[in-house]
Design brief:
A four-stranded antiparallel sheet has the order 2-3-1-4. The mean pLDDT is 97. It is globular and about 65 Å long. It has 198 residues and is of the alpha+beta class. It is built from five helices and four strands, in the order αβαααββαβ. It binds protoporphyrin IX containing FE (HEM). The site of protoporphyrin IX containing FE (HEM) has 28 residues, from strand 1, helix 4, strand 3 and helix 5.
Length: 198
């Protein structure tokens, strides 16, 4: 079952599956020649601590929440119809002629179709860290994503979200980091050994 984030929506539906080795090879592991040699077979990790203004979100109507995400809250189905794992249809219009998945919906802007096919392996962790100085919940999503090249994956997706995502009204990025994750160690060796080879 897909876990939910603190907005109450299923998070991870359209994620790359670890078992889908073809997709993982293409989008997650660094291939030879792509980066420094010692990174071949490794991955780049982007992490963001994203504060979510839960109180404001909880005051908004269900219809607004579903518009912001582009999926239904109960099932996680795309607003264009179907069930959780149906592909979203971004062209489909409602009876009033406007797209069923809003132009500023998070899933529209984050989708590979909008980002030259860029895909991330996401792993989100919810955090709840007491209250802030005004008594609001200090909570959100510790977003982490693995990819073979952040310059063509995380960065363009995040720039698109930063400009237009309807979710921006309810979130604030408060921390950011990027890590080079070298490949696993061979028998008798250690992580990062490639850094010290000629
Ligand atoms: C607090 C912040 C965030 C929340 C609450 C959130 C929530 C969601 C939800 C509910 C979905 C739909 C279900 C799914 O497919 O997983 C989704 C999809 C997605 N999100 Fe986020 N997200 C957040 C931040 C981000 C960030 C920072 C990025 C990358 C820059 C991102 C990239 C994606 C991608 C790539 C998808 C899949 C789109 C698709 O292929 O349909 N999200 N997110």
């Amino acid at each position: 079952m897909t876990a939910r984030n603190l907005f109450g929506f299923k998070d991870g539906t359209a994620n790359v599956k670890a078992e889908d080795t073809t997709e993982i090879e293409e989008h997650v592991w660094v291939p030879k020649g792509d980066s420094a040699d010692w990174m071949t077979g490794g991955s780049y990790l982007v992490s963001r601590k994203i504060r979510m203004t839960i109180e404001t979100w909880d005051h908004s109507a269900l219809r607004e929440q579903e518009r912001v995400i582009g999926r239904t809250k109960a099932e996680g189905a795309p607003s264009s119809g179907g069930t959780e794992f149906t592909e979203p249809d971004f062209a489909k219009e409602g009876s009033d002629g406007s797209p069923l998945i809003d132009a500023a919906a998070h899933v529209r802007l984050a989708h590979p179709k909008q980002n030259d096919g860029a895909v991330l392996l996401r792993r989100g962790y919810n955090f709840v860290d007491g209250n802030d100085e005004l008594g609001r919940l200090n909570a959100g999503l510790f977003f982490i994503a693995f990819q073979r090249d952040p310059r063509t994956q995380f960065v363009p997706i995040q720039l698109r979200l930063a400009r237009n995502d309807a979710m921006n009204e309810y979130v604030r990025h408060v921390g950011s980091g990027i890590f080079a994750v070298p490949p696993g160690a061979k028998n008798g060796s250690y992580i990062g050994a490639g850094l010290f080879e000629n």
